[in-house]
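P.,

For your records, the input lines for the assembly:
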Amino acid sequence: MKLKNIVSIVTITVLLVSCGQRPSVPTDATMESRLPKIYPDYTEVTIPVNICPLNFAVQEGETETVARFTFPGGEYVYGEGQKVLIDEEQWKEILEATQGKEIKVEVFAKINGAWKGYQPFNIYVAEDSIDEYISYRAIQPSYVAYEKLSINQRNITNFEEKEIYNNMSVSTEGVGQCINCHSYKNFKTDNMLFHMRQGFGGTMIVTNGELKKIDLKTDETLSAGVYPSWHPTHNYIAFSTNKTGQSFHTKDLNKIEVQDTESDLILYDVDKNEVSIISELDDELEVFPTWSPDGKKLYFCSAHFEYNNDSIEKSAEMIQRFKEVKYSLYSVDFNPDTKEFNNVEMVYDAASDSINQSVTLPRVSPDGRYLLFAQAEFGCFHVWHADADIYMMDMMTKEVQKLDPVNSDRSESYPSWSSNGRWIMVDSRRDDGNYTRPYIAYFDKQGKAHKAFMLPQKDPNYYTFYLRSFNRPEFMIEPVKITPQEFAKKAKEDAVPAKYADQ
Amino acid sequence: MSKKSNHRRDVSVETRKAPLTQQKKQLSQKKEKKTLSLTAGKSACIAIITTIVIIALGAYYLIVRNSDMLYMAQSKDFFVFDQTFRTSCMNSPGGFISWVSSFLTQFFFYPKLGSAIMVAIWVVNLWLSKFVFRVKMAWMAILAIPVVCLLVSTIDTGYWLYYIKQTGYWFYGTVGYFFTLLLMLLYSCFKNKSGQIITTILIALTYPFLGWYTLLALLYVIVISLTRMKSTDSLVNKLLSPLFPVILIGIVPMLCYNCYSSIRIEDMWTVGFPFFENNDMVSYYPSIPFAVLSIVPILFPFLPKNVENSTVMTWSVTIITIVVLLLSWLWVEKSDFQNYNYHAEMRMYRAAEDQDWDLVLDEMGNIPGDASREMVLFKNIALMYKGEMGTKMFRYNNMGEPPTNGFDTLHVHMVQTAAPLIYYYHGKTNFALRWGIENSVEFDYDYDYLKLLARCALVNGEMEMAKRYLSILQNTLFYREWAEHLLPITEKPELIKKYPEFDGVRELRDHMGTVLDGDNGLCEMYLITYFSQTMNKDSKMLQELTLNYALIQKDIQLFWPRFYLYAQMHSGEPMPIHYQEAAILYGNLEPESADISNMPFQDEVKKSYEGFQQMSQSLLKAGLNSDEVGEAMKSTYGNTFYWFYFFCRDVHSY
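Structure tokens returned:
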């Protein structure tokens, strides 16, 4: 009997305490005629119907916060200190009820003992879903050194995140390893790749679920494969080959220039383990290949650059003339059956006197109608160029427009499309100019981009404490199935050398 | 009652244990009293003395001898109450120890407080080991060996301090050993086999949290189970008791490997054991204390239990206690890295951070031998910020020896020690940021780099970036105040003008041009090249810096235009003595480079130059070689630019 009483009292107390913690909307708030300062900024954004909760923090000073989410099916109220942390199950309910409509969010903050209410904002829920996964390389804003690097996959319909591969699973103090350029065929992971440099170097290529480690460097090519693009229908991968260097601005806030002193394009036939040349013109710096969705065109960027000072090394001349390096956009026709390339065409003459800009990282939309790229004044490494923005070409009209809703006054680069073409993801340094974060924007059927929002995290302060960049964010429709340990085991094996096929 | 207690204290343990032979024993004891017996009181005395010795050694070697080092150690570590940090700690086995240790390391912000906490845990460890291994108090000195190892491991790292990658290294061993003993205490609580097996499994389950120290606990379980084995135990029990933990040591790390993606399988059995290596070399010396710490407790269960009432044993224990304590002290003394420059660099670094330029110069003035290049640079920075480069730069020892550990061949790079702060004070905030980030990539973010990155971002006008770093520091225990002092600037950038600590750096940076280049990892060489070839007419501070670097460069052609510009910008002011010395020297060495006949040199300068020339000529005529001449002239002319020009050579930047 006594025990029963104790249990009852404890239960009631716990219930009372938990009830007491539930936030309620203040009735005595004075209203402000402005939007609340929230981080990340989710005001007036359009979100996928299957995205994880948009948790945010209210930045109105030392506050107690309440946020009311009103949606067609009802309303929920949240608030924990300065944070608005949304219950995941309730969020699913909200999204399901709000497809094609909007959620009204009212934010209240208690400042110096008095409640203030702010202008409500909407979160629009699109009827379109987004690919369940993204992957990115977690890297500190890199100069030269590298230590702990990982390629991570994040389920963006919830907060689950795992490492695909971590270089520390093979690295030692004596033999370090850099990893980069993860890439997938048609958003699926049974055909994927990433590179490993320095220690245990090679390219990890998964074909039809089978893992191989290949050395793509041949005597006839400039380097091993660098920037990759999987052919959508055949087992080919286009790569650039690059001789890359870095130098440092003594005062300019862009801080770093990453430059290619030479670069070419190669094609790798996965089944035959053969490398062949696509383009290796002397005075052209070809880079960033990307296939059209039908696989009949390869788009790439190229800068015309003639070295004219024999008394110094190419890298030194490149440093001296770094602002002269401007890339334009080209395409070349491709016959997948014969592996023949012909008919190089200028698609967008960014380097022309009239435009005088430099284009990088082209990506064609899954329906082939649009082409996204990053553009800045010069160079090829726009993540370090604050003026870099995302532009879009309408392939039917060849008209180029700046995608204002996804851009900021800081660097935007590495655009990518979701598999259904309704979502754009870009890498942006808009937060602080130093750490790149993935931003997602809705791209509607009329070809209009909407305001981009930062990838949500469970803890809205996550980005403050996470001192790494999200590098090369890519959409995936499924997770990588090979475990990090399996990758590590393969990484320790010798790479199989690719053969060179003279065409 | 009190009488009874007193009586008990006088009677030996053996007497109480064997009442049937009490009478005989008492007679025997009466006889032995004439010789020597180790009573419980004496054993306690040994234990207390040992404890006091440990406290004294800790207090002396940590607080008195190494406060500056411990302050630097905490500044090279990091702790914040945040999920992201916690997760990063837990990314490898033993992560919980890292997390707790980095929490404790931050208390070295006040070296006395951190040391007190550390010594307190050592004392707990000492006494805990006594109970865990059921060792007599008389053996306390032996039990103290692991604790001595912990002290040695704290003060013997030398320049590895800058290269340690283990989060919370400074408390890692202390906390790890503490948890090992706690696990062993739990194991000791169970007498029956089934309880011991369950406890052994529980110990194994702590592997993700304690890593190496879980395996150590399992190793000690093997030893204890062997020593406590009874002849009456069944064969299965005899085999199972030691074999079971052996199997767990073998398979638990292997099983756990699949839960970790950031560690090599080969390292799963050693994760948490400190290895001192970089891409050039491996140093075994600083790992020795950890190896000894791991091995010595294996002996504890074998220490004799019956130490009373035997003269031989009594003498043995007494001698062993004295010898162990003496050897411990000698080991600690020998391991204590008391390189003068090593400690002076840390004191100078801290003073420079606080912009206490007088203290920087005091340190430089007190060095008994040659300074390190880092110290020379800090001295120059202090003089620059005090506006005394032209009058005092060569009054200090400008020779510089590369830092060495002595016990190994670790090659210390300035870019990994003080270069970020040196670049910052030269107004080269981009390079300071670069090396702050590069080093954070390699050794993880720490308080020191976060402060530096925040400062650079503020000076660069990158307010959101500054706010991020300051917000992180705001969430720490001891840097909150520092961060909150600067946070207002991130909201109102114009406020930076009201913070005098940024004035000099801003002036230098704002008047510098921008170019695209690199330092190839050599900070000092880069600064000499960059500034000696820079000209500036707008900032007196920057202009004087370029003149001084032209002096350091010993380049006559670079000197004259900067000298004339200095004279022009400081018209009506007295010309600093070192610039006069350079002008008179260069004017005589290369008369075609400048006409100095009308320059109004001070008499003192003319006399010293003539004296320098005469003395050097006479010494050379006397048959002394160049080095000997330099050494002979050092006491008279070591404070002049002439001496620097001719005799300050073979300086190795690093």
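Two observations worth noting. Chain A has a mean pLDDT of 94. Chain A has five helices and 36 strands.

Regards
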